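ARCHIVE CARD
CATEGORY: sequence design from structure
SOURCE FIELD: tokenized fold
FIELD CONTENT:
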């Protein structure tokens, strides 16, 4: 089992509000391995929990730390990082 941690800067112009948070949480849930997201020194939350993700109050330009634990963790972190770095409000 491997654990992968990566820091990502948020790209969405309005941060992780409902729509991008839902996309992110769904992708984390689909990963089928434990993934957490943390902002600053805050306690990490389950990345598959939309309420947990929204509760972090993540804004554009904030840095968050993703951690995935298990088989394929690197790929999971790659795809989730890309989701977070993309400006979904520009689409």
């Amino acid at each position: 089992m491997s654990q992968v941690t990566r820091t990502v800067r948020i790209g969405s112009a309005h941060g992780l509000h409902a729509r991008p948070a839902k996309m992110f949480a769904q992708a984390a849930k689909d990963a089928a391995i434990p993934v957490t997201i943390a902002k600053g020194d805050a306690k990490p939350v389950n990345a598959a929990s939309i309420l947990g993700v929204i509760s972090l109050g993540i804004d554009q330009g904030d840095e968050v730390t993703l951690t995935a634990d298990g088989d394929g963790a690197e790929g999971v972190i790659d795809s989730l990082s890309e989701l977070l770095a993309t400006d979904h409000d520009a689409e």
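CARD ANNOTATION: The CA atoms of residues 9 and 20 lie 14 Å apart. The first strand starts at residue 3 and ends at 9.
SHELF: design records, drawer C
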